[in-house]
Amino acid sequence: MAVLEVQDVRLDPQTRRAWRAGVEVALSRKEFDLVHALISRAGEIVTRDELMREVWNTSFWSSSKTIDVHLGWVRRKLGDDTRRPTLITTIRGRGLRFEVTEPVHGGASV
User: Which CDD domains match (predicted)?
Assistant: First the structure.
């Protein structure tokens, strides 16, 4: 399996290691699986049903918050602002997308 690299995030599925801007990020097993499911389809919307199947190996929802909680941990570890994410964005009613390029946010730049 090849190393995946999108924006400044690198993921090595073989060794299950992740880096952001060259700095290794320690991810739990489920966090890694969540990032892998998203980054391997960067630019595409991945539905919550697909994530539950691929990451949690279940077709039923044990809790609707499961994905959100893990996503929060992943965003914190990768330094992705939860209010204005540039890596993983939530597409309301559809799912999540790992952005190929940093999204342009409206309003004044910081």
Answer: trans_reg_C
